[in-house]
Amino acid sequence: MIDILTTLAAAAPAASSGAFNGNFALGVAGAGAGIGLGLIGMAAAQAVGRNPSAFGNILTIG
Fold first, then answer.
1. Does residue 36 fall inside a structural domain?
2. Contact predicate 47/58, CB 8 Å
3. Helices in 1-62 by DSSP H: which ranges?
């Protein structure tokens, strides 16, 4: 068990030395999710604007 921990501790600085690491990928994934949810909200608002009587069918939770 100690051998594994020392190997991982020795490899950690080399793994995080790059400029684009996991933090950058996580940020891009979060931005993509935010843009996607924004597009869904935009489309729902446009649909209600075009047909206000469909409000209950478009913007219902549950």
1. yes
2. yes
3. 2-15, 22-50, 55-58
| Chain segment 29-49, per-residue pLDDT in tens | 999 999 999 999 999 999 999
- How many domains does one find in the chain? 1
| Contact present, 49 and 56 (Cβ < 8 Å) | no
pLDDT digits (tens, 9 = 90+) for 21-32: 777 888 889 999
Confirm whether 9 is domain-assigned: no
29 sits in the region (left: phi over 0; alpha: psi -120 to 50; else beta) called: alpha
From the number of C-beta atoms within 10 Å of its C-beta (0-12, 13-18, 19+), residue 47 rates as middle
Answer whether residue 44 is part of any domain: yes
